[in-house]
Amino acid sequence: MRIIFALLVLGLATAGALAQSREDIVVTGGPALRFMEHGKDASHDFYWFNFIDGSTIRLKELKDAAKPGELVTWLVYEPGYASRAKELGMDLLSQIQAKATQLGVTLVYFHTKAELVSYLNRGHDRDQMKIASFDYFGHSNKACFLFDYSNMIDSMSVNYLHVRDLGLIDSDVLAKDATCKSWGCHSGEMYSQWWKSHFDVAMIGAIGKTDFSKGGEPVLSNSDGKWVQ
């Protein structure tokens, strides 16, 4: 009986540990090239680090609050930083890795929408490890996360996650109490609604533009902007 009781207790403890296995995810899009943006009245990404800065602040918050069994993962669009590094003549990727190491978070580079979707679906066993939080830092419009805006083509993006692409992500990857936020421009005007419809989990997004230029967490650009779900 003692053996049976011990096995029962062990089984309950194991089940509890599995139930507590969660992952916080921060996704960071790439910066525009200065070659593409130079001379524009509304020029983007004077500083290559602006999305990284906001991301690392959020990552530290998540890491400090992480419970046992909860992972903190940083997904970064590598091609955008590789091309900006070439333009600047600097090793930006090693600086990003150093930030991840300093924070004690797992750094995962993605190169395509398919790789990002694959990680969200199968980076871990999502039956056992749900996504506890999701944050996006990068360029966006109301319908897309724009990972390479003005990086490969002037004022355009060819690598993006459109609202219609949300159907590629399994609808149950998020924990029911997950917190989600897009820190990019205009996400609250459409993306948040599609996100909620697909995952049955709210996403905070901006009405209007957001400003990353001053460092730290981005802020709303205009007085009539607001955060909505």
Provide a descriptive summary of the structure in words.
The protein is an alpha/beta fold and 229 residues long. The chain has a single domain, classed as 3-Layer(aba) Sandwich (Rossmann fold), CATH 3.40.50. A hairpin with a 7-residue loop joins β10 and β11. α3 packs parallel to α5. The N and C termini lie far apart (53 Å). The N terminus is likely disordered.
Question: How many whole angstroms does the radius of gyration measure?
Answer: 19 Å
The mean pLDDT is 90
Largest sheet: 5 strands, parallel
**Oligomer classification:** single chain
List how many beta strands DSSP finds.
12
Identify the CATH architecture: 3-Layer(aba) Sandwich
The CATH first-level class comes to Alpha Beta
Helicity level: 25-40%
What is the CATH third-level topology name?
A: Rossmann fold
State the helix count.
7
Strand order of the largest sheet: 3-2-1-4-8
Key traits:
229 residues; alpha/beta; Rossmann fold; three-stranded antiparallel β-sheet; 12 strands; 35% helix; globular
Concise account of the structure shown:
With about 230 residues, the protein is of the alpha/beta class. The protein is built from seven helices and twelve strands.
SSE inventory with pairings:
Elements: H1 2-19, E1 22-28, H2 34-37, H3 50-65, E2 70-77, H4 78-88, H5 92-103, E3 106-110, H6 113-122, E4 130-137, E5 139-140, E6 144-146, E7 160-162, E8 174-182, H7 191-199, E9 205-207, E10 210-211, E11 219-220, E12 226-228
Parallel strand pairs: 1-2, 1-4, 2-3, 4-8
Antiparallel strand pairs: 5-6, 6-7, 9-12, 10-11
